[in-house]
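Q: Hi! New to this. If I give you a protein sequence and the SMILES for magnesium ion, can you show me the bound structure?
A: Yes, paste them in.
Q: Okay, here:
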Amino acid sequence: MTEAATAAPSRSAASAAVRLGGVSKAFGSGSTALLALDNVSLDVATGEFVCLLGASGCGKSTLLNLVADLDRPSAGTIDVGDARVALMFQEPALFPWLNVTANIELALKMRGVPRGERRERAAELLESVHLRDFARKRPHQLSGGMRQRVALARALALTVSAKDGRGTVLLMDEPFGALDAMTRDLLHDEIERIWRERGLTVLFVTHNVREAVRLGDRVVLLSSRPGRVVEQFDVPMDRPRRIDSPEVSSLAAHITDRLREEVGRHGV
Ligand SMILES: Nc1ncnc2c1ncn2[C@@H]1O[C@H](COP(=O)(O)OP(=O)(O)OP(=O)(O)O)[C@@H](O)[C@H]1O
Ligand SMILES: [Mg+2]
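A: Thanks. Here is the predicted structure of the protein with magnesium ion bound:
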């Protein structure tokens, strides 16, 4: 492959697509209140790929839900400008009674794409995840990896914009956690290609440190609950990276040590 290496965008120079300022989130109130996130400040630059790591229950999904505007912070501000935001859940969550094309057309309909354009747009999206031949299948007729790809296409459908040049932010919540290593490697290549071709801004949650280093321009480590940003790691290696390369392994080992310290300090 002779692709040019993609440099990590400079955080200071690029404009922020997502800006979290002092975000806290508590569930419930009074003596039973549970603080999930505590004073999280984080900027994600336009076009940046940021991976979020942290122990189970530290507030990663909560944070994505807040950015997706599915919930409100208890304190602090969240600014996504006029970007389109799409959330890809851990489970593919497709409609089982609709075929692959119809699942994607529904997302396009929700985004106001006129009926006459939906079929063609859906076909383009399926092409981008290499699933054109499965357009008429229903979710149960697909493998787990294929279902994840449909979910990815559907999330991308939610980012279609009326005008070019409008920012798109893709939030991914452990999207590949349940897949075998080989399928995951293929989807890493795919998401990296789509991210680059479409100029997406990605906030990607994972438990897998190597996956974070394989994909991210930057890896953000959250503390155990309540989630706070404890450390950030720039990933300087050229793309595409191999998940089993010595450079990825070495940085992943370093981050894993920090994660262990963090989990050890608070338990899970
Ligand atoms: N709607 C809710 N109501 C009450 N508590 C909630 C709600 N959503 C999340 N929580 C609590 O907030 C904390 C953070 O949950 P969250 O799902 O964000 O964690 P997470 O980092 O995504 O964990 P995991 O890695 O296991 O997916 C947990 O203690 C959880 O019980
Ligand atoms: Mg979660």
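A: The chain has a mean pLDDT of 88. Let me know if you'd like me to explain how to read the tokens.
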